[in-house]
Amino acid sequence: MVKIAIAGASGNVGLEVVDALASTGKHEILALSRKDGPPNEIPALSGVTWIKTDYANLERLTELLEGVDTVLSFIVVHLDQDNMAQKNLIDASVKAGVRRFAPSEWVGARMDHMPWVEHGKQDIRNYLKELNSEKKVLEYSLFQPGLFLNYFTHPHQSAKYLPTIATPFDFENRRAIILEGGDDVPMTLTTVQDLANIISKAVEHDDEWPLVGGISGDTVTIGELIAIGEKVRGAPFNVERLKFDDLKAQIVISSWRPKIEHHAFTPEEMEALESQVVSGIVLAIGSGAMEASDEWNKLLPSYKFTKAEEFLSVAWKGKD
Known about the structure:
With 320 residues, this protein is an alpha/beta fold. It has 10 helices and 14 strands. The protein has helices at residues 12-23, 58-64, 84-96, 115-131, 192-202, 222-233, 244-248, 267-286, 295-299, 308-316; strands spanning 3-7, 28-33, 48-52, 70-73, 100-102, 139-140, 142-144, 147-148, 169-170, 175-179, 186-190, 212-214, 218-221, 238-242. α1 (12-23) packs across α5. The chain starts with a strand and ends with a helix.
């Protein structure tokens, strides 16, 4: 049994991981949240204790982490001013003698063209690197699954807690917006279920965690994803190819835009950021920022990942 603390446990990805860890029946889980308790729709989970947490209180945070083996962070980076919460979580982990830490990564290896997350994630990477610069103080791994495959079932739910979001690949309406010349750029797609299962196995993994913890459910090119979409949706996609210079200037010249909604942003924030976010995501995907490595695949070779075509074929079966 491993005692695990999950920060940001009431977030969508955090809930998927809490659920997967609880289902093993092996662990004592501390679900840390700024909220008073679990969301109303969450059933009672065996072995899970919900704790309202003030990340600004380093002393209390250290007390909470006493006896914890592994800390997993799902703190929303762009809402964490100066990375205070996550840095305090790291400091408290060290003070409490925590063995392992996973910072809030949960996407591709690079953050090119996504300034809303780039500074925060890179700052935490640097903070952890500096912490271990003279000797290893805290074992950690950057879990990087690429893009969640579940997003491409939008607007149809395909996970317990993770909602779908609109992306530049609109399977429902058979259309896509991509970077001109980006058809052959690879992207890694992993279901959130596979991510949660890999974390469940990682906390029991005896050997040292890899610093870069790539998780590759499936890696396909942009063109291959569109071809999968056309196959599972039974008709060609209307693909609009946008110029790099326009996107770099946050100019999106297309007949449509994905209405991107995310629990971490208010509708007002999303409206103000729409051009930046849409252009940034198209550029990030088109530049290969969503490709991840496969360290955890190699460490857990018996695990069978869900492939993109398999998952999307099932998800879209029988839908107009």
